[in-house]
Write the structure tokens for this entry.
Amino acid sequence: MVKKILSTVLVFTLIAGFMFFGAQPKAVAQDLVFATVVKSVAFNWFLRMEEGILQFGEDYGVTTFMEGPSVADSAQQIAVIENLIPQGIDALINVPHGVKEQEPVQKKAMDAGIIVITHEASFVENAHYDLEAFDNKAYGEEMMRELATRMGEKGKYVQFVGSLTNASHNEWMDAALAYQQEHYPEMESIGRYESKDDQEVAYNTMKDLLKTYSDIRGVLGSAAGDVVGAGRAIEEMGLSDQIAVVGTSIPSYAGELLKTGAVDLAMTWDPATAGYAANVVAYKIIQGEEITEGMDLGVPGYESIKIIENENGVPVIYGSGWAKIDATNMDQYPF
Amino acid sequence: MKKILNSHEFVVFLILVIISIVIGLRNPLFFSASAIFDIIRGSIVYCIMALGVLMVLISGNVDISFVAIAAMASYSTHMLLLGLGYTGGIGLYLVIAIFFGLLVGLAMAFITTQFNLPIFYVSLGYQTLWYGFNLFFVGRAMNFDLPEGLVGYYSRFLVRVKDPVAGETGLHVSVIYLLVIAIFIWWLLKYTTFGRGLYAMGGNREVAIRAGFNVKSITYLMLALSGGLAAVAGVIQSAYSRFFNPVLFMGQDLDVIAAVVIGGAAITGGRGSVIGTILGVVLIQVLNRGLIFMGVSAEWQKMVVGLVLIIFVSIPAIAERRQGRLKYFPVSKEK
């Protein structure tokens, strides 16, 4: 009996100990708490975003933190937000894996009086503001121009998106496709494939696509790992010189392949400044400031914002400009 | 001969052949050496994990923590060696990772045997525990820094072939690991007391104990081996994809178990074979990838895999009913 009690006490002490050990030292006596929820905390992309979020917290004296599931999954992301709502956060910045699935929980947060800002979700319905690094249509068109130049403006190409319900990815690809159909009649899309935000899926899909469509000459990637997976497949098959690979990515993902030329061009925006800017928007709203056209959010790329209302009446804030990264300038982008 | 023709493994093999022919009719390139090598490459890692799962299933248990053990062992090994400035090849990676895998497997065996808990219950927590361990203690970011010796491992081939379409591919060297492991497990299952003990445990645990099998030590060895195999799979997969991932294989546990079940292992224990397991993994791989060769959508492919699974779990039950021996209800038969 004593042994039983003793072991029970031991187990509880252990659990309590672990909980204390794991508890992050949260700043006290600060008024505002902003949570940023991302697709997955295990993506380097969002670890870079976290830097911006924490920097904002320091600059503005707000308690900020980033949370999210360990794999990109809408159901898990919704659960994370559900748990945050009753914890009394003042603002929620959400980067949804799938936009449609997460509308209800964003509405729930708004109903609870939380300021909701989304990112990479320009056709969102339930949010106070959405913030995009740039105009998605222009970005998709630019991607297509870069690809077309490298393909000699002819031949077949394939499009990758992280998920078929990801708003930004599909907007870029829609714009790229429309632009191609209008300007490059000799090019042809063979379709849009889902990488499930998983490089291994992109790799296998690319290998199999090359066997089915022997004359692929170009690849457009949306998720940061798309061009990496596809680029690996292309490199291992010795086709780096024959296939142009252009898409969203960052040097820590695509660096090696940019050097070898398997990935020709990575286009991106800095997730840190995007995270910072989104938090600034939430802060200004809470302070009662109005968000206006041409406003300076205080980080590079967002010095003069554009605001356009989307079809659901949610104002979308656009920053300006994107970065184009290839082997020559990748050292300037340390993320 | 008749015994072979009636075996579950032969049925799986037959279906594999039929499906391959159907795919091959639509796209003859499916039968090219390069396509076959790609499918083998895609199967190796899952075969290695599945052979660990096979032992656990034969013993009448279900374990879902092996994916997390694979992630923990490979990621921790990588971060450790990276910190030490290691520049060598995959050898030391495997040794250290296997050590981690064995250790964690033994710890799990300790918990299950000490408190007499079903492995499944323990593995529920165990999976979360080791993913959490990675994210909290080791690191959250995917790591792309490969030691010199590991660069190029992803395209080290035994045989190189020209791809019929473009470029080249080959039979990856890691197929040797799989062969060695498969023969070892086959020998264990067929010729050792440990192997016979596994089948006996799965058939009827009480009877196995009374027949003099040391169920406890069998459990220790089984889980240690399963942990070690998962570790090998984790390292090879990471070397393939050129980065180490703290949440490697997350969400793929049931896919692997499904492959083993398709290969003829009974989820209730007492039945299963090495050949069947390998065929099961290859069959899922062919189903998944063949549909790209045929140009059908990802959603349809998921449904097909589900249907195949249902058919395969019903086959042994139907066969047994026909032979008039209802294995799981021996009492009703005696009346």
